[in-house]
């Protein structure tokens, strides 16, 4: 069987024996109440702490009903490990979220679905090992048991076509709660909307199945001129600011240039701190790349820092 610890580092016996010898005790009962709220990596780490916690995770299905696999475990997750982890829910798994799990295949997903017929939220964005047909088969399997799928995320799966989307929509439209919410209406920098039944739709610009956004800025020129359809489309058709989601005019793309090559509107570009040398900003998502030289209130970007070192060497 695969190792669920994912090679979690352990303290060496020498480190454990440092200082006064201690008698291990039982973990506080309050700690057991926290287990259902931990991430998968947190559950794995807690299970390595002591035998009592490991037994608690083994005997209780509650921490395993909502399974979300994301970084840094995504690239390690494969079919065999996924099947073993989901088996801890004893067939009662409700949410299966696999984000960027490229090693998961149609066969692995189908096995998990067949063993967990109560799943009502299926998230598999950017799982490039899956096919549209494999996802459809999984959804159909859930419907056989009378289960209504509340939401599904499939953005990033290759070769999604209109007919695939139409089939999937037929399995989520019966849920009235999801119909009350309009999907993909605003650009969301913090993440996907968890209310939308499906995270993709047909782009009105390119007619492809993609995530579709509309400009969230009320002062948008297109909104002001009541040309709402012109600022609604996928990110490939309409450039959008990575900060606020506003649609960016072609003339502003070169003027509001970012170091990280992300798109910025002029308003956000003016508000961000700039490199002391090239006068370009990082977006907030890449702000950690800033290099702060001593005695300077600004920062130096990675590219300018390399050029500066080359000049010093010369």
From TrEMBL:
Region (Disordered) location: 1-24
Gene3D superfamilies the record matches: Ribonuclease Inhibitor
Protein name (database record): F-box domain-containing protein
Species in which this protein is naturally found: Eucalyptus globulus
């Amino acid at each position: 069987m695969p190792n669920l610890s994912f090679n979690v580092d352990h303290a060496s016996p020498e480190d454990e024996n440092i200082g006064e010898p201690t008698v291990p005790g039982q973990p506080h009962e309050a700690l057991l109440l926290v287990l259902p709220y931990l991430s998968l990596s947190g559950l794995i780490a807690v299970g390595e702490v002591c035998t009592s916690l490991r037994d608690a995770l083994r005997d209780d299905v509650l921490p395993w009903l909502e399974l979300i696999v994301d970084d840094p475990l995504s690239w390690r997750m494969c079919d065999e490990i996924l099947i073993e982890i989901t088996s801890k829910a004893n067939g009662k798994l409700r949410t299966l979220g696999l984000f960027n799990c490229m090693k998961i295949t149609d066969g692995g997903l189908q096995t998990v679905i067949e063993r967990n017929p109560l799943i009502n939220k299926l998230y598999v964005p950017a799982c490039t090992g899956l096919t549209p047909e494999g996802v459809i088969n999984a959804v159909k399997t859930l419907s056989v048991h009378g289960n209504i799928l509340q939401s599904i995320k499939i953005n990033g799966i290759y070769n999604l076509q209109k007919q695939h989307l139409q089939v999937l929509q037929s399995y989520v439209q019966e849920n009235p709660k999801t119909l009350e919410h309009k999907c993909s209406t605003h650009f969301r920098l913090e993440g996907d909307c968890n209310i939308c039944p499906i995270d993709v739709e047909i782009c009105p610009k390119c007619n492809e199945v993609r995530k579709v956004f509309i400009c969230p800025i009320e002062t948008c020129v297109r909104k002001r001129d009541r040309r709402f359809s012109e600022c609604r489309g996928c990110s490939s058709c309409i450039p959008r600011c990575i900060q606020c989601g506003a649609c960016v005019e072609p003339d502003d793309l070169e003027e509001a240039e970012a170091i990280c090559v992300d798109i910025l509107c002029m308003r956000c570009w003016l508000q961000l701190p700039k490199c002391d040398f090239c006068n370009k900003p990082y977006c907030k998502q890449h702000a950690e790349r800033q290099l702060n030289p001593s005695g300077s209130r600004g920062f130096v970007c990675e590219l300018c820092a390399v050029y500066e070192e080359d000049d010093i060497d010369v």
